[in-house]
Amino acid sequence: MNYAAQFTITAWLAAIGTYAIGKNRQRWGDLFTILGVLAGGLWLGWLWVSLERPPLRTLGETRWWYATLVPALGLLIGWRFQTRALAIPACGMGVLFASINLRHPEAMDKTLMPALQSAWFAPHVIVYMLAYSALSLSFGIAGWTLAKRYWRKEAFITSDVDLPHRLVLIGFPLLTCGLLFGAFWAKEAWGHYWTWDPKETWAFLTWSAYLTYLHVRVRHALLPRLNLWLLTVGFVTLMLCWFGVNYMPTAQESVHTYTNPG
Q: pTM to 2 decimals?
């Protein structure tokens, strides 16, 4: 794992540096980003084969998916909308999460408890990781815009929310699918679709936070600062759902806690 993490981190750091130099180096930045994504994807593929199960059970394993998907999604969306605004934040998030795994490696084994031996398990987690990637990029742009406007004491303009909003339009449907897949999985594994388990509750709160943003965006599109702050609240809720709930006292009551936090 050390070599995979070191290579991906080096590739994405090279991409960040290349993007920062200027427009005439963007192709090289894209190349370094692709190399990092390929290395992360190959590592995940090797884990899937060697563990004989989807590498989606632990926090460390999902961090690898996230670290790989964020730069990949940032690159694809950048190509689609002809913008490199996502390039540095996407690679930066990839570096951060790959570094966390490098710093805190996990002992991975082939064990997969019966509840996880479901056809809904892999789609549920992968769709969620895609949703988290898009919504995290949305926050990255929103957070940077907030910091820049406040630091420079500039007025907020409606176009500040354009790119973050597009990312929410990608991430929110995926988040909804992940929530539904989780309900189908729960029905198959435990016999019920929903029980307000702590993890389920925070997943619903995350979904509700972004639904609130979308409603406010429709009614108050001319209040960009409010919309940007709502995206920040949504991201904080997302992080609490993904990581924070595992450290809360109620985590011991959750049937969705399969490993110790790590």
A: 0.88
